Amino acid sequence: MSLNRRNFDALIIGAGGAGLNAAIQLANADLRVAVVSKVFPTRSHTVAAQGGVNAALANVLPDNWHWHMFDTVKGSDYLGDQDAIEFMCREAIPTVYELEHNGVPFSRLDNGKIYQRPFGGQSQNFGGDQAARTCAAADRTGHAILHTLYQQNLRAKTHFFDEFFALDLVRDAEGVVCGALVLEIETGEPLLIEAKCTLLATGGCGQVFRTTSNAHINTGDGMAMALRAGVPLMDMEFYQFHPTGIAGKGMLITEGVRGEGGYLLNGRGERFMERYAPKAKDLASRDVVARSIVTEVKEGRGAGPKGDHVLLKLDHLGESVIAKRLPGIRESARIFAGVDPVVEPIPVFPTAHYVMGGIPTDRFGRVVMPVGSGEEAMPGLYAAGECACASVHGANRLGGNSLLDILVFGRLAGKNIIDYVKDNPFHRDIDPSSLDYAVGRLKRWDQHGKGPSVHETREKLTRCMEDHAGVFRTEEIMAEGLEKMKEIRAEMPDVRLTDHSRVFNTARIEALELENLLDVGMALAASALYRQESRGAHSRPDYPKRDDVNWLKHTLYFLEGDRLDYKPVRTKPLTVESFPPKERVY
Predict the structure, then answer these.
(1) In sequence order, which residues have a C-beta less than 8 Å from that of residue 83 and are 6 or more positions away?
(2) What percent of the chain has pLDDT over 70?
(3) pLDDT higher than threshold 90 for residue 374
(4) Is residue 238 left, alpha or beta, with left meaning phi > 0 and alpha meaning psi from -120 to 50?
(5) CA–CA dist 237, 242 (Å, integer)
(6) How open is the CA angle 75-79-81, to the nearest 5 degrees?
(7) Which of 119, 420, 482, 486 has its CA 20 to 30 A from that of 338?
(8) 28 phi and psi, to 5 degrees?
(9) Helix 82-102 crosses helix 401-423 at what angle (to 10 degrees)?
(10) Which three-class secondary structure state does DSSP give residue 274?
């Protein structure tokens, strides 16, 4: 197959907050940078982030980065790497100011400073009173940030490949990544993009579950590309179920609702979070609130005709506050739940929301591989955002730290890539077998004949993940789920497309996405089965306690042979004393 080729200094796959914040650093340094996105950039999933971005600006209440670090380490259930967490919390402040200077229209206080709202798991003074750390643009913070970054990239003349699907990474004979093979969705034609350096910023994998707050595009593409290139995925068992998705639908109701003073009620009209988190109540960390809601429903205290959800009450805030601070939430509740939160509560239930794990990186965004008892950075390959795991979230992410993660590490990856390209100014020769593998992945879907459909197989996969890797997990449930996943994988070679057209064939894109979801789902299911403890978002009723003796370590899943390995948690920060593990109390 003869391929069209393009050459760039750097290739960024994904046009969300991480990819665009990296791209702006590169473009401003006069590097030729290509950004590949399977949707128009402002439809990337960052646009859906509602509540805000954490930074210890102390605009509303006293705050500093060290308190932010403590809350993040505690929220991670002590599985986060404390050097990376310190780095992120320090970098949060200049990162938010850079966003402001780039034109992000943050909501303002009367004194003109950036508005900050309280969020779950935040405290002053290392676990003291509630903090207000989350910088917000009403309840559309991700929308404001993404549009601003896109506009700045247009100004800097970043080269965009809109509606191109990344198939696979390509490498040289030594295994160094040299770019990627991508597919133009409109024409169905493949394109080889050669680059001195490649950044994966493809977002999360929420579509692996049947009910999710994630967009349809979140199919774990970058994670699966890394797996196929021999890179392990780290800590994939830690999947966060956001406590407040619209019941039965999954659309997100931001934690900002509770930050503004909303609270949860069960079917009896009781404020039940007082039972589970007497101090933090509705602003406990997300894993705690999600389990509390599921427990209320399972024990027969749910709301609605079927008793299958709880209620989020915010009518007491008043119409003016809701209109000013939560306009998007009111709109979503009206459209998807059929209720106006100004007069009645919103029915909510936990929804698959965020993966804490991903492609292992250091704090500069470099993808790292285990070597002996340590690790080494892979030359020319970076990852940032939700597809990556610098391990700042550990076993559970705090609200407001996801936008922070993508912006800090996207920015730092971009700055590090500038140095890498200076030191490696020439393109490498692509190994033909690497290219053949990528092309073969595309050609496989040209096969004709009868077999299971992509839609049927994907439905089977997402239902299996929801049933066997949900909020509560046991050995029996997960072992059965892993076997079902292996059966689905065995059936994959028989799956067929009925539409073999080239032009705008979205069925073929969905088939390629299904392959990615299966690989990432296997990583999640296998990692969850073998972690025999309860930690953060990974809740095992058969192992109810956190086990710091045997399990204070990161899981690494390799695609070849479904192999699992482990590496230690870095408990030593950069400049301050370590926070030793202790029981999390909210």
Answers:
(1) 363, 570, 572, 573, 574
(2) 100
(3) no
(4) beta
(5) 15
(6) 100
(7) 119
(8) -70, -20
(9) 90
(10) helix
Q: Which of 179, 200, 198 is nearest to 190 (CA)?
A: 179
Rg (CA), the chain: 23
Q: Is 286 noted as a catalytic residue in this protein?
A: yes
DSSP letter, residue 472: B
CA distances, 390 to each of 193, 395, 483 (Å): 26, 12, 30
Q: Using alpha carbons, select from 3, 35, 383, 432 the residue that is nearest to residue 192.
A: 3
Structure letter (DSSP) for residue 137: S
Q: What is the pLDDT of residues 12-39, one digit of tens each?
A: 999 999 999 999 999 999 999 999 999 9
Q: 116 pLDDT exceeds 90? A: yes
The three-state secondary structure class of 377 is strand
Q: How many CB atoms lie within 10 A of CB 144?
A: 21
pTM value > 0.85: yes
> Among the options 228, 286, 397, 458, which is catalytic?
286
Average pLDDT over residues 107-120: 96
Can you read off the two tokens belonging to residue 467?
A: 């049933």
Q: Which element (helix H / strand E) includes 319?
A: helix 319-325
Give the rounded distance of the alpha carbon of 354 from its chain centre: 5
Tell me the pLDDT tens digit for each residue of 77-105.
999 999 999 999 999 999 999 999 999 99
Alpha-carbon distances of 213 from 201, 365, 385, 435, rounded to whole Å: 19, 26, 17, 35
Q: Where are the alpha helices (DSSP H) in 398-505?
A: 401-423, 432-443, 454-468, 475-491
pLDDT at 2: 78
* 247-294: pLDDT as tens digits: 989 999 999 999 999 999 999 999 999 999 999 999 999 999 999 999
The structure tokens 């933090």 sit at 280
